[in-house]
Amino acid sequence: MESKSKEMAEQGKRKMEWAGQSMGVLRAIQERFLEEKPLEGVRISACLHVTAETGVLMQTMQKGGADICLCASNPLSTQDDVAASLAVHDGMKVFAIHGVDRDGYYKHIRKALAHRPHITMDDGADLVQLLHTEYREQLDEIKGGTEETTTGVIRLRSMARESVLGYPVIAVNDAKTKYLFDNRYGTGQSTMDGIMRATNRLMSGAVFVVCGYGWCGRGVAMRAAGMGARVVVVEVDPFRALEAVMDGYQVMPMMEAAGVGDFFCTVTGNQHVIRGEHFACMKDGAIVSNAGHFNVEINLGELEEMATARRMMRESLEEFVLEDGRKLYLLGQGRLVNLAAAEGHPANVMDMSFANQALSVEHLLHHAQTMESKVYAVPDAIDAHVAAMKLQTMGVVYDTLSTQQQVYLNAWIMGT
Ligand code: ADE
């Protein structure tokens, strides 16, 4: 048993090393942090997907001098080997077990709060929510926090609107070097990866329904189309719906899409996007998945109620038999399919997201005293630095304006 867990930790270590090879920006920050120790004596509680990429981020913060406690932001995304390695090799406090139930999930967040953080790092704002409801006495000890994802930022903005947010939080999600790449290309690739690992079905020629055409939905649609699927987009926002049409996709209401899709993927951030009335008219064999943050987008209660039988067909693939004999398939329990059935976004994009995380924490430590209890954008200088660094690590040289061109852009007097 002991040698088994040692081997698991070794495997996690190799996985992080592999991920780190594609995270040149974070590695450069790590080197600087090691020298300058900007996080010396800072206690950080992080509630993130416990993946190899997150492991590299945690190592970066630790090299900067931080005392880390990590818990999972989703019960199905935890990579146990990574958790083991961070605990065994890096001596971090890690509270994360793959597949843990709801009670265990929240118990782990409580452990992270017992770490008495100065800084919180969240993905979905579950840690921040618990802190503000049940651990309010700790609010004064906290300098600031960061938030990784769209759903978390929406929750934080709602807290700020109601004047209940207790400290400044930087919305990492909203940095250009985050959402344009992680949300679009990261979600695009990892969602297809999750669906294919769970089903091993052919995309080519299938009808793929994407619910939600935000940055994540755009990425999923793009990649499904790239694999030969005929993409249908369901959207409630007229600008986004129009964009989807002009991007070449069919746009229709969910009720109509329900009857034509072979694959469905929700990426809206809202609840009950696919529900009983839709299950009722889906084709036999339809495959339903979610790539939004929470497992609320598919009405699982209604699906369970409508089913006369259910069984696991493969890992992450559950069959639901309806009264009329039709079979519907649910991937990864309706949780983030890219993390539940695959390994999340590739390290290459997480590099930028997590570089923004590391630099935002450093920024908070320098500026928290003058910041209010609001949601802040990642400073433009950090965002631009991450973009430039990423290009540099990729060996891409980009152009610069000549002095004459700069003058032209600033002059209003010149015409044709
Ligand atoms: N969110 C999406 N993909 C991720 C990954 N690989 N690591 C951490 N968080 C993620």
Description:
The protein is an alpha/beta fold. The chain folds into two domains: 2-178 and 345-393, Adenosylhomocysteinase-like (Rossmann fold); 186-340, NAD(P)-binding Rossmann-like Domain (Rossmann fold, 3-Layer(aba) Sandwich). The chain is 47% helix and 16% strand. Strands 9-8-7-10-11-14-13-12 form an eight-stranded mixed sheet. Strands 3-2-1-4-5-6-15 form a seven-stranded parallel sheet, sandwiched between helices. Helix 12 links the parallel strand 10 (263-266) and strand 11 (287-290). Helix 5 (102-114) packs across helix 6 (126-134), helix 8 (176-199) runs antiparallel to helix 15 and helix 15 runs antiparallel to helix 16 (380-393). The model has no long low-confidence stretch (mean pLDDT 97). The site of adenine (ADE) has 10 residues, from helix 3.
Task: Supply the number of structural domains.
Answer: 2
Low-confidence stretches: none
Annotation field: number of helices: 17
CATH class of the largest domain: Alpha Beta
Strand-residue proportion: 15-25%
CATH superfamily of the largest domain: Adenosylhomocysteinase-like
Helix content: 40-55%
In which order are the strands of the major sheet placed?
Answer: 9-8-7-10-11-14-13-12
What would the average pLDDT be, to the nearest integer?
97
Ligands present: adenine
CATH topology of the largest domain: Rossmann fold
Radius of gyration: 22 Å
Distance between the termini: 78 Å
SS-based structural class? alpha/beta
Major beta-sheet overview: 8 strands, mixed
Name of the CATH architecture of the largest domain: 3-Layer(aba) Sandwich
Q: What overall form do the CA principal axes indicate?
A: globular
Q: What is the number of E strands?
A: 15
